[in-house]
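Notes from the 1:1 (GR / supervisor)

We went over the backlog. Supervisor wanted to see one worked example end to end before approving the batch request, so GR pasted a single chain during the call. The sequence is below; no edits were made to it. Supervisor asked that the structure be written out right there so they could see what the output format looks like.
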Amino acid sequence: MEKGLRRAAWVAAVMILLVADSAVTANLVSRGESQIQAAPASAEAAPPGDALTRFRTEREQLRAREEAELNDIIHDANTSEETRSQAQQRLLALLDAASKECILEGILQSRGFEDALVSVNGGSVNAIVRRETLTQQESAVILELVLRETGVTGGNVKIIPIK
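Structure output shown during the call:
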């Protein structure tokens, strides 16, 4: 049962990234500015390791692909200025989210959460920590850190302990 819950949490987290990635891709493709095709993630292509390791790897691969696609749009001579501006804004947002994730993961590790993964997506944040359970104090520490570093509201932060 626990393995099924861990798998479900991982799948949900990956789906968040896939939906965000697909939304940008669909928006840019619908404008006819670029021939971008999102490659669906398959279970067979999942990297080896535990759920957090797989999630990290998937997140890095999706980010790298989205960055490359956005750079292609930005540097394409046929891209309209409006679309170029949107792609630049999306790239800056992507880099900002990656920076916040890195900072938060480092702070959480220094606070004793040895294996933590943070996903910043627009106005929401998921903080996944390797703990069977979290005390109220531990949850408060994580929430305070996330709120301070990201500026999102408390209702948009999910703290997920996994074994």
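Supervisor's comment: Strands lie at 116-121, 124-130, 157-162.
Batch request approved.
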